[in-house]
Sequence to fold (321 residues):
Amino acid sequence: MQNTKQHIISSLLAGAGVIFAVSPSYAAGVPSRAAVTMTVTAASLAYGRNAPHINPEDVVVERGKRHLLVTGFVPAQGTHAGLDLFVLIDEVSTPSLTIQLEDLRKFIRAQPATTAVGVGYMRNATVQIAQDLTSDHEKAANALRPPLGCSGANGSPYLSAVSLMKQWPDHHNRREIVMITDGIDPAIRTLGMWELNPNPNVDSSSNLAQRTGTIIHTIYAAGARRSDRHYWKATSGQMDMARLSDETGGKSFYLGLENPVSYSPYLDKLREILDNQYLLTFSAVPEKKSGMQRVKLSTPIAGVVFSSHDAVWVPALRQPE
Fold:
């Protein structure tokens, strides 16, 4: 009697909060499935209202023309509330950012006990960790300091984000970054309107964030470099910030090319976002090679919109032995 072997593949990406498990092979001609979990923010289009209760059957996940089976849509609360939140500040920011630090401290102190907060400063395409992830919110808040006003020879904020994501600790918590920067990448040297061309460093940061399940929110902070006050360069920086946040399921905040009077409205919105997140699980179809698969989320519930990664990482389908 011949025994039937079952092949189970599970892959957990470094603390991503994105979990994959490929089920046993089905009958010939029917592809195996990979259970993928991703963080989704639900928002109501009605001002001042939270999204209503959402059931798994209210969520539609599409890959091309194929509808994927949704198996779970759980609020990120209770036993699912774990969150790793890193605040990253660009060292090139003007000293005027100092007046925003108290708002940031209040935001950090107000985080729930289930949130671990870290603080880092972006310089030379790396991150200087001022405070590693900790549940001691007072300790994290006190790690904030004024920026130096200099980002180093290679001050790409996007490569700094890549550096942080590569060293993120392993566990199942949600992963999110609040990146405070002008978005300008001195590693990309272009002229005039050509600065509006796609930035490959943004691509690198976005791809890694989606692969590891990291959501990146961005807040504009004017830079101290006089050369970066050129209109096209500043506009290009904001567009890069917005693209990074949009592709990773985050929110981008800016108001013109100057610093706002207060970050409080931005941080209030961030608190609302973090309070309205869900863990979505659905069945993806593995391909011959591991890779990113673009998906589209929607719901028939009127007035509700979802924010999430544009794509998810799906491991390759293992062929039967």
About this structure: Residues 9-76+277-314 form one domain.
